[in-house]
Write a structure and sequence with these properties.
- The structure is a single chain.
- By secondary structure, the chain is α/β, with parallel strands linked by helices.
- The chain contains 11 helices and 8 strands.
- Helix 10 links the parallel strand 7 and strand 8.
- The two termini are about 15 Å apart.
- The structure holds 2-phosphoglycolic acid.
- 2-phosphoglycolic acid binds next to strand 8.
Length: about 250
């Protein structure tokens, strides 16, 4: 059975002291939950975040990783480096990586391959832009993002994949997909995976929704049958908001 997940993507926010302060508050306020709770601070604070959460069930994950094992890739971080400090999950394919850092489906496919080969878990992000939705092309865009970056993955490796559907027009804009729009797309994603693999893989993969999830809309979004949790940006930066979203799951 698939698990419920609430993950906080901190993006390029929070320095060392702020990271420790937020994590201490989160660990103290964490409600009882069967959901997996994850936070993704910046690379530079991953080690201290792990230490701060030593006695907590909150998992620390990375926002990105490179596909190569090592070498002349100035400014990049490898899967082995993450594993070496106890980080076994990486967000891959966030729309900001695609839009501002030129990450194509081809690059993302390489990152996914590397992460899975290292036995890491991948939180794969994808989603359409506003133009795609306006031109009724959103299902095609999502299907091709999945096909290009994920569908050469072996069936046996899907247990290490978490999906995060994040319509680009809803990220950081305050605009949220309606619960019905999220459900419709998540059901389509499961159908697409069933066609490429089988129903058991489609039914066992956790599909998170991301894009302006906040305490006020989390309950409604999470109540949809194919929505297994959320990838939270802005609202993950305040302990009370993130805790309220965890309670909503
Ligand atoms: P947001 O970001 O919650 O601030 O819209 C979500 C994300 O980018 O993962």
């Amino acid at each position: 059975m698939r698990t419920k997940i609430v993950a906080g993507n901190w993006k390029m926010n929070k320095n060392l002291v702020e990271t420790e302060t937020l994590l201490t508050e989160l660990a103290a306020k964490l409600p009882d939950t069967t959901a997996e709770v994850m936070v993704a601070p910046t690379f530079i604070n991953l080690v201290s975040a792990k230490q701060s959460l030593d006695n907590s069930t909150i998992q620390v994950i990375a926002q990105n990783m490179h596909f190569a094992d090592s070498g002349a890739y100035t400014g990049e971080i490898s899967a082995d480096m993450l594993l070496n400090v106890g980080i076994d999950t990486a967000i891959i394919g966030h729309s900001e990586r695609r839009a501002y850092f030129g990450e194509t489906d081809e690059i993302l496919a390489k990152k996914v391959t590397t992460a899975l080969a290292k036995n890491m878990r991948v939180m794969f992000c994808f989603g359409e832009e506003l133009e795609d939705r306006k031109s009724d092309n959103h299902f095609n865009v999502v299907a091709s993002q999945l096909k290009n970056a994920l569908f050469s993955v072996e069936a046996s490796e899907w247990k290490n994949i978490i999906l995060a559907y994040e319509p680009v027009w809803a990220i950081g804009t305050g605009e949220t997909a309606s619960p019905e729009q999220a459900q419709e797309m998540h059901a389509f994603i499961r159908k697409t995976i069933t066609e490429a693999y089988d129903a058991s893989i489609a039914n066992n993969v956790s599909i998170l929704y991301g894009g302006s999830v906040k305490p006020a809309n989390a309950v409604e979004i999470f109540s949809k049958p194919d929505v297994d949790g959320g990838l939270i940006g802005g609202a993950a930066l305040k302990a009370d908001d993130f805790v309220a979203i965890i309670k909503a799951i």
